[in-house]
Amino acid sequence: MHALIVLSHPIDTSLTHSVATAISEGITKADPANTFEIADLTQEGFNPVFSASDIETFQRISKVPADILAEQTRIDGANTLVLVFPIYWWTMPALLKGWIDRVFSNGWAYEETADGSVVKKLGHLPVHLVALGAATKGVYERHGFSDAFNVQIAHGIFDYCGAPVVTSEMLLMPELGEPNACLDAARNIGRSIFQPA
């Protein structure tokens, strides 16, 4: 089984990078035959700007740009998709949101039909969301962030495409206390990714 781990953080020595690595360790520890690829959007220089050509792709009046086709091909080659990111302003980083905006395009992730219905095209792609946060669970719960996170991302993005969100985990430093606890939690997530539900 192969996992595509998409990582969004500008500093390669960040805890977010370490969490992505720990998830990959858990994946291979669960079964040495498992493989993974870490797609570091910053290091790869992914352009997140949804441009006029992306609108034309959405409207299906122009071809999918080569950079987006490459990302879609990479996802098509994976058995699961793992997104690892810090929580910025109570959402995902703009780079990761731009990746989703551009890559999860009409005709590939979903299809808007002439009668106004939507065909969900990613039912075969389990998704795992792993977000790192600096606030406490209590703060997030009091303000409805946990529910909003799942509505915006799990439902608003992935359910729209039919991709089941299997893991939606926030690794919160105030609760975990120190980075090693965060990395242990990430390894456990990695070990469970290809395990039967």
Which descriptors would you attach to this protein?
two-stranded antiparallel ribbon; 197 residues; 5-stranded parallel beta sheet; Rossmann fold; 45% helix; globular
- The helix content, as a percent range, equals 40-55%
SSE order, as H and E?
EHEHHHEHEEEHHEHH
Q: Give the distance, in angstroms, between the N- and C-terminal Cα atoms.
A: 15 Å
Tally of DSSP β-strands: 7
Beta strand %: 15-25%
Largest sheet geometry: 5 strands, parallel
Q: State the strand order across the main sheet.
A: 2-1-3-6-7
Mean pLDDT score: 95
3D structure, described in words:
45% of the residues lie in helices and 20% in strands. The mean pLDDT is 95. The strands form two sheets. The protein has a five-stranded parallel sheet, sandwiched between helices. Strand 1, helix 1 and strand 2 form a beta-alpha-beta unit. It contains nine helices and seven strands. The chain has 197 residues and is α/β, with parallel strands linked by helices. The radius of gyration is 17 Å and the shape is globular. The chain has a single domain, classed as Rossmann fold. The longest helix is centred in the C-terminal third of the chain and has 17 residues. Helix 1 packs parallel to helix 9.
Blueprint of the fold:
Layout (H helix, E strand, L loop, with lengths): L1 E6 L7 H16 L4 E6 H4 L7 H7 L7 H11 L3 E7 L7 H10 L6 E3 L5 E3 L6 E7 L3 H6 L2 H17 L3 E8 H4 L2 H14 L5
Parallel strand pairs: 1-2, 1-3, 3-6, 6-7
Antiparallel strand pairs: 4-5
Helix pairs in contact: 1-9
